[in-house]
Amino acid sequence: MKDNRGQVWNRGASIHYETVGDGAPLVMLHGNGGDKEDFSGLIDYFLPRYQIVLVDSRGHGRSDTGSLKLTTGLMAEDVLAVMDHLGVAEAIILGFSDGANIALELAVQAPERVQAVIAVSGNTDPKGMRALPYLFIKLQYRFWSFLEKLGLPVGNRPQRYGLMCWSPRLSGEELRRIDSPVLLLAGTRDLIRTGHTRQMAEWIPGASLVLFKGAHHRSLFKETDSYIRQIRGFLKEYDL
To answer: Which of 118, 209, 233, 236 has a Cα-to-Cα distance from 65 of 20 to 30 A?
Structure first.
């Protein structure tokens, strides 16, 4: 089993990655405020069939924030840089939350590099979030930005909360151009509005949609077997 880790420089930031296994490439992308360790409990579900490529998103884990404004589009470019470094021509992309948004950005930006997308609890517009969580995030962004202007040590919190305020911005027209298989997974009590998830499924040609009754935003990590069952079925359907 291959086990490798390193850093890739892209657009003013050092991006950390780790690979596990020897099979077909499967890139895993974590959510806002997390890092690649979030997937530690999921890796064994995919071995030995897949080579897992774990990436710390820009501004998270061991990856630099850099000086550029954080967007899911920029983060998608970072993933492509890691794939280029590893010699991965195309891969299955599995993303959670902001990682799901990055996965969809990749399917729009570089369709030739994406075999399939598994997007868990993602959104294509900040207003796809439920009203109260979205308001909380905007207030957090203003709070940490204010402290930053005062010269207080706030880390990259303004950038991370800002990311959720202004990104992603994928239009229906862009989503209609996605030509790889897409599986959308979400909970009916998710941070993302169910209506928004359904709209995403309507825009993306041939997208598969599974809504888990009563599941929350992080249920992927609490009810993992149920999610994995759907993911495996999807991968088997497309012989991936």
So the answer is: 118
